[in-house]
Write a structure and sequence with these properties.
This protein is mostly helical. The protein is built from 4 helices and no strands.
Length: about 100
């Protein structure tokens, strides 16, 4: 990983055309990025999709980068993501 974001082995995955039917049928899955943007970090993704829960955001980060950060393996990251989601549910069930 560089300071410019994740380096994909096959960058073509980033540039596949989007089926217009999908954007119409499932608009909540698609977000426009500003013109000229070549990299998007996980914090932008969380904000774009309105993720406000800290544990959910942490789980998403772990899922997006599972096994890629070097310090922990994929399985450990996935287990920690599960723990984050469980914690998010606990907090939601506690109420305000």
């Amino acid at each position: 990983m560089s300071d410019k974001g994740v380096e994909f082995k096959d960058a073509s995955v980033l540039y596949k055309p989007v089926n217009p039917v999908n954007t119409q049928e499932f608009p909540h899955y698609f977000k426009k990025v500003p013109s000229g943007v070549t990299h998007v970090d996980v914090y932008w993704v969380l904000e774009a999709f309105g993720v406000t829960s800290q544990p959910v955001g942490h789980a998403i980060k772990k899922l997006l980068c599972a096994g890629q950060r070097g310090a922990k393996g994929r399985e450990k990251d996935l287990l920690e993501a599960i723990a984050c989601v469980k914690r998010a549910l606990e907090l939601e069930n506690q109420g305000p």
